[in-house]
Structure formats: C-alpha cells, structure tokens
C-alpha cells in the first residue's frame, strides 16, 4: 500500500467512525503539502504501517500504554488544581498499547525533520542521545511533573526564559465562525455541562487546530463569566489510528487512562464527556508549536525535558518499566538515531510522492 492508498483508506475509515468536516480535510491536505513536518504530523496512520515494517526488531520491544503520535509539537501548558502553570505532553488522541520504542523513535524522527527544517539548533546525534538518556534516567528515578509555577528556575529546565501567551487570544477566538443551528452534532448540552454553572448564554464556534485530528469535529463554547471570557473546547473522539489497520471502530478508554496514570499534575478541565474530548482554552492552556517558541532558547535542555516527560507518561504503566529498562540495556548505542533516521527518510519519500498528486 502506497501513501495515496493509505490516505484514501484511512480517511474512509475515519468517515465511518464519525461525521467529519470536509473543508478541514481539504485544509489538512493543503498544509501537508507545504512542509515535511506538517506531513509527518498529519500522517500518523502511515507511521503505523512503516514502523513495524522498517523497525521490526524495535516493534517487538516491551509494550506499554504509549502516546502513539508523539513529536516535538505534542507539548503544551495547562493550569492544575492549584492554578500552577504546568508543561508536558497534551495530545493523547492516538494513545494505545504499543512498544515503548514507538514514542522514542517517533519523537526522535520529528527532531530530525525539525532540524532539517531549521526549527531546532541541536545536532541530530546529540538530540537523540539527550532524549534517550533523559528518558532512561527519569524511568529509574520515578519521574517528576513539570510544574513551572512561573519560577525562573523551573522554566530553565525547559531551556526557555518564559513562555509567552499568544497575542489577541480572545479576539481571535471570538472571530471564529459561529456554528449554524443544526450543525453542531448535538454538542451544545455537552459544552453546557463543561462550562461553569453561572454561564447560561454562550456561542459555539468552529475551530481548526492541530494536524492529525484535522477533519474531526472541533467546537468551542465561549461565554462571559464574572467579568471575563471563558472557553471550553469539545473535539469528537475517534479510535486511535492504530485501530485503522484492524478496521476497528469502537472507542477505547486509553485517552482517559493515560492521563490519569501518568506522572503529572493534571489539568482539571481535560476529560472525556459523552464521546467528546473536553479541555479549557485560555492564553496559558494551549499547545506550544516549536516554531512559536522564543528563538533565544536552549534546545538541548528542551529535548532533555521532552525525554523526561515521555518517561513521565510511560511510568503510568508501572508493571512494564522493569522490562523496558532491561530492554534498553541490551540495545546498541546508536539504535535510536539509526531507527529515527530510517523512518524520517521513508516519510520524506512518501511526502515527495504525495506532493505530486
């Protein structure tokens, strides 16, 4: 199956799982043609074919509940129960029981692609070594959440002086197109339940975000509460793309499970509600694009933090960690770099073929 056949098959399967927004599918294809990194992010379904094919030995590594579609754009910020600013992995749409190597190789492949696109300044060999050592050490130590709490010493762990909230956040959100009556897929009662109780009057807008999930219905409720705006996003759940090769369409509990078990100070507003992924939207509760980070940063520290955070998530599968550490000890020194390089080459080959269509 080539990239065109895989894309056609996957999108057909997605339409059978949920109603889709066709204009978002078209927009996704336009973006995927522009850069290799967008293509990489939008084609995790293809990764589910390529990884076992190219890295058969690593595919037989110990399994745990993995992120699945992990890459350098999978990280963001949120506020915990105490209102403290946290940083970590914030996208679990494709979480699934997978070899632990899947997340490490995919993260490292995204580093290779980001370096080639001049979005990271670290060398590829060094980047892989940093991720792997941070991951291994964090597994041994039991992990630790990235609770930033605005303290400079904590921010330095990310190699970033400070994370700037997006400019004009509420203006941009309020200017999104309002969803016409009858086109909200009955999400209004779900959003009503997710909003603070004082809010009775709110509007629902359509939002485009991410890459892998473009096409899935994504709505945002915006209302005023005690002098300011409040927003909740609802994204329609679909099975992990790991289910596509099996043609399975039933939803799994992995999204909630992986968030609940990971070593983290959780976002109290992120949950699953009646088949929708709910999250609070605000200027400091957002995914962070690698291209939007301050240019003045330490990419080595940032990749070290990404390796640690990957371990934080994997530590949710406590009974698997000893087997993972034993497997890591048996691997050759360059295994991660070699596998990520091979996958990045295969993905670039697919991208060049895809752009011709």
Task: Write a concise synopsis of the structure shown.
By secondary structure, the chain is α+β, with helices and mostly antiparallel strands. The chain contains 14 helices and 10 strands. The strands form 3 sheets. Strands 6-7-8-10-9 form a 5-stranded antiparallel sheet.
Which overall shape is indicated by the principal axes computed on the Cα atoms? globular
**Number of DSSP helical runs:** 14
Mean pLDDT: 93
Please tell me how large the radius of gyration is.
Answer: 20 Å
> Poorly predicted ranges (pLDDT <50, ≥5 residues)?
none
Most strands sheet? 5 strands, antiparallel
Oligomer: single chain
Could you estimate the helical fraction of the residues in percent? 40-55%
Strand order of the largest sheet: 6-7-8-10-9
Order of SSEs? HHHHHEEEEHHEHHHEEEHEEHHH
Molecular structure report:
The relative contact order is 0.21. This protein is α+β, with helices and mostly antiparallel strands. Helix 2 crosses helix 3 (36-42) and helix 4 crosses helix 14 (335-355). The chain is globular. The protein has helices at residues 3-17, 22-34, 36-42, 44-54, 56-59, 100-116, 124-141, 152-155, 169-174, 188-194, 254-261, 299-314, 321-330, 335-355; strands at 63-66, 75-79, 85-89, 96-99, 146-147, 203-206, 218-225, 228-236, 271-273, 276-281.
């Amino acid at each position: 199956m080539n990239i065109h056949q895989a894309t056609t098959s996957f999108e057909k399967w997605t339409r059978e799982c949920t109603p889709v927004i066709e204009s978002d599918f078209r927009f996704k294809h336009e973006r995927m043609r522009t850069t290799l990194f967008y293509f990489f992010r939008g084609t995790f379904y293809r990764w589910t074919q390529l990884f076992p094919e190219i890295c058969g030995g690593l595919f037989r590594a110990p399994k745990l509940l993995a992120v699945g579609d992990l890459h350098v754009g999978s990280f963001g910020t949120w506020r915990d129960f105490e209102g403290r600013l946290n940083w970590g992995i914030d996208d679990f749409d494709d979480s699934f029981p997978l070899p632990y190597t899947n997340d490490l190789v995919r993260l490292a492949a995204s580093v290779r692609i980001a370096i080639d696109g001049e979005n990271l300044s670290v060398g590829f060999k060094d980047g892989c070594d940093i991720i792997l050592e941070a991951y291994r050490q964090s597994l041994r130590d039991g992990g630790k959440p990235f609770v930033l709490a605005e303290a400079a010493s904590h921010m330095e762990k990310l190699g970033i002086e400070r994370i700037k909230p997006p400019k004009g956040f509420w203006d941009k959100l309020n200017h999104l197109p309002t969803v016409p009556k009858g086109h909200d897929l009955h999400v209004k009662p779900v959003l009503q339940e997710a909003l603070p109780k004082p809010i009775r009057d709110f509007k629902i807008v359509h939002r485009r975000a991410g890459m892998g999930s473009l096409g899935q219905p994504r709505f945002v409720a915006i209302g005023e509460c005690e002098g300011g705006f409040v927003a909740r996003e609802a994204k329609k759940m679909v099975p992990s793309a790991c289910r596509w090769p099996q043609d399975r369409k039933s939803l799994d509990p992995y999204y909630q499970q992986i968030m609940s078990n990971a070593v983290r100070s959780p976002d109290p507003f992120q949950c699953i509600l009646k088949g929708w992924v709910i999250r609070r939207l605000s200027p400091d509760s957002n995914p962070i694009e690698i291209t939007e980070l301050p240019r003045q940063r330490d990419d080595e520290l940032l990749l070290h933090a990404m390796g640690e955070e990957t371990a934080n998530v994997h530590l949710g599968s406590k009974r698997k960690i000893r087997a993972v550490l034993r497997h890591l000890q048996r691997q050759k020194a360059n295994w991660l770099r070699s596998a990520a390089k091979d996958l990045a080459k295969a993905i670039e080959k697919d991208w060049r073929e895809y752009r011709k269509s």
